[in-house]
Amino acid sequence: MLKIFLIGLLLSLIPLLLNYASRREYPTPPSGGAAVVLSGASTGIGYDAAVHLADDFVVYAGVRKENDAEMLRSVGKSTLVPVILDVTSQDSIDEAYVKITADAAERGIPVWGLVNNAGIMTASTVEHHDVAGMQKIYDVNVWGVLRLTQKFLPLLRAQAGRIVQISSIAGFLTIPRASGYCSSKHALESLSDGLRLELAHYNVSVTVVQPGAVRSAIFEKSQSASQAKLAEDPRELKVYGHMIKEGSTDSIMAKADTPDCTTKAIRQALMDRYPKTREVVANIDGLPAIFAHYMKHMLPDRVLDKMLLSTFA
Ligand SMILES: *[C@@H]1O[C@H](CO)[C@@H](O)[C@H](O)[C@H]1NC(C)=O
């Protein structure tokens, strides 16, 4: 096992060197100020990023509810501007676009960056995932990104701006009873690769941030939704009860990082001269999440399966 690990570590030096040698320079934020649109700013990763990015940008922080907008206003930064935004609704996006472009024009700054952060999660086995439930996940995590990106892309392209996608280690690793979420993040990864290739000519950088466990409301929301679903329809419990252990992810969540790490990665993706294409951040069960990346790409499926099943089942 140790030998495999050491050989793997050595082999991973080659891509690391290539990665450095192939880094690409992109235009940095305009010196006269710039605006960034961020979705899902009410809690967790999005909230922390919105509040801190407001030190360097005018942040249009998308939230769905008026009381969340009020909460962001109470932070008291004139550069943190809450906007009502529901990424599942084209009308909501269109309305937000009008408000954002008008406000940015008034401030005399371009809309330069987009952070696709809004995301939801539901726990269920593939067998029992109702189609409507999975469509709901995709409506936020995939179609929501598509809608918002398509709307703002002409502005970003004209300014050689930047796009940051908040994916997850679920973008390359699938865990049991989370195929809806994991497959949506896999889709986001591919969508982002396509964007990066298509926008290379226009010097618009696309960075995918892949966090491990970060303290965020997404897990609690997902857990309570999953428990409600199990109570309503116990069929899943009957067939997959051996996988549904009370508190099986408690240790992972107890060790979750604060959103400082995601905010730092988002900031770098927006500001560095050499933005990364991808960045794995935070930890998973105490191990740096980058190890999950190595494991996924170096270990055979059956070996990885054993590790995942021992943790999640
Ligand atoms: C992209 O950046 C390169 C290098 O700075 C520049 O030569 C090129 O004209 C830019 N492309 C566009 C479409 O602006």
TrEMBL record:
Give the species: Nannochloropsis salina CCMP1776
What Gene Ontology molecular-function terms does this entry list? oxidoreductase activity
- Residues spanning the signal sequence: 1-21
Set out the biological process GO terms recorded for this chain's protein: steroid metabolic process
Protein's name in the database: Uncharacterized protein
Family, per entry? Belongs to the short-chain dehydrogenases/reductases (SDR) family.
For this protein's source organism, the top of the classification is: Eukaryota, Sar, Stramenopiles, Ochrophyta, Eustigmatophyceae
What's in the keyword line of the UniProt record?
Signal
InterPro entries reported in the protein's UniProt record: NAD(P)-bd_dom_sf (IPR036291), Sc_DH/Rdtase_CS (IPR020904), SDR_fam (IPR002347)
